[in-house]
Design goal:
Blueprint lengths: L1 H13 L4 H26 L5 E9 L2 E7 L1 H24 L8 H20 L3 H19 L6 H28 L8 H5 L5 H19 L8 H7 L2 H27 L4 H23 L4 H28 L3 H36 L10 H4 L1 H14 L6 H14 L7 H33 L16 H19 L1 H16 L4 H5 L17 H22 L25 H11 L4 E6 L11 E6 H22 L6 H20 L1
Antiparallel strand pairs: 1-2, 3-4
Amino acid sequence: MVAAWLLVGVIGVFALRRLRFVARVLFPAGGLIALVLFGVALAAVFGGPEVAVLPIGLPTLPFHLRLDSLSAFFLMVIGATAAGVSAFAAGYFRRGEGTPPGLLCLEYHLFLASMVGVVLADDAYMFMVMWETMALSSFFLVTANHRIPEIRRAGYLYLLVAHVGAIGILMCFGVLQANTGDYSFANMRVQSLSPFWSSIGFALAVFGFGAKAGILPLHIWLPEAHPAAPSPVSALMSAVMLKTAVYGLLRVTFDLIATPLWWWGAVLLALGLATALFGVVFAAVQVDMKRLLAYSSIENIGLIFAAIGLTLIFAAYRMDALAALALTAALYHVASHALFKSLLFLGTGSVLHATGERNLGRLGGLIRSMPWVAWVTLVGVLASAGLPPLGGFVSEWLLLQSFLFTPGLPNPVLNMLIPVVAALIAMVAALAGYTMVKFFGVIFLGQPREDKLAQAHDAGPWERAGMLWLVAGCVALGLLPVQFIQLIDPVTRQLVSAGLGQAVAGGGWLLAPVAVERASYGPVIFLLGVAASFALAWLLVRRLYHGRLRRAPAWACGFPWGNARMQDTAEGFGQPIRQMFEPFFRMQRELPTPFDEQPRYRVSIDDHFWHWLYLPVAALVAQVSRLVGLLQQGRIAVYLMFSFVTLIVMLVVVAR
């Protein structure tokens, strides 16, 4: 299937500017391959590990591959998401995107193939080759419209952070191979590292994979790259590429090191919570719909890392059943976020194509001209807000359930702090719902804020097919949690030697992760209750009161000239968050005076980390570069002296 994706990409190069052929033939073919990948991975989750050696690397460094339950689960997520995104892309791409359609097709399918290669790699060599291929192909996809300077800057920033993270991952593998010279994962699994070197390897893994995932303070590339990329690419990056970093952290921590310490989990829990809170607060104040979704991805990645941190704490104290519960929550959220976030990015892509606007302040009322996109996007909004009966609720509910069992930990400090963390996660979930209300309400409800929005068109058939596939996934994860947890069970048994499959199997359609008397959730019962409530409301309004009501314009407090300027704006929604969490932001306000003929009020929000960390580092690098540049202005005798001194120093070091 990887070879088939590469073949589709190569065919695209030969059909470089044939947009219709690339869009209507090659992208659907890539989607079909993704469907096959999903089916094969679904079967492989329950199978035993399969290994292979491909002699396509260097002469003494072939590619080692391994397909086990962990890799099969992430392959399943890649296949399911890529199938919907590829179908959407068949109707999305237009001429004038900057990159020729055939070249875009090659980069797109190379990106998919490299992510599969990352998940299948069983040695550091293949892993790093696939990791760098993934970074480079996604860089070219981000800079598809490379004629715009802002897009080029966003792409370079992303590539820089990606390579810094790759250095951390490479150093991590260097620690794990323990001076044996064997970089295969099979060799790393049998090494017995001391707690010190295990902790060094774990810290390097968190740094390297955290840079790709967007963990604080390495998140800085994510809100820049996602708005710059085409919407299908943004969907794949947020929904799938970020999850390869989660896969890498799970592989290193639970498989290659396999001896977690409790404070690793505490560090990861604190880091994940800070990232989640930071992401949701910044998402709530955004006025660009793609930047809003990018910060929302940071929030969800933070929740996943917090769940992994809790898993590490339970695993370190040999509380295997609770470790399985926390890990199940993390994996459930991996799949759920992949589906609903890709759906939301595709919805914004349809809005962007129909209106040419990304700014929330110039949108509104699109449910009238784009009803189909509005209703399918609403499913993604509800799932992202963590509302039942969709998948986002199940994963967050499982995570909170795992926090409620932490008083059994033997560490009194953790017993005291983790309930506070659980309360903060509940607050993050509430703020996420607040943000999604803003996102959907400002874009689709109310009156249009611009006259041109009246000409907006709904999504085409290919775009609808892709979004419907993702909607079906969101609904399935919400209505079939017992079955999906049984699918996750082999993964948790591989990593923490325990699972929830047998515990939830006896409940039928009722989800009880520990015991029915402790907590349970019936998604089908909840759905039937919602449907019955809607039916009762319709019956009361349409049957009992039909003919007794009259329609009239809404009363606007006695002001009869209401228009779109008087309805809630994105800035208005974000104002309470700006006030409550003001220390999070670096704000600059432009205030009008009483004498302005055209008064204007504007607030610009910036990230403190730009000024605290990145700008000082950039200034230091520029200064060092200027000093190094002075070496290029000397004479040949000076250069020979530098070479001679370097040679003498190296000889002395070797002699010692």
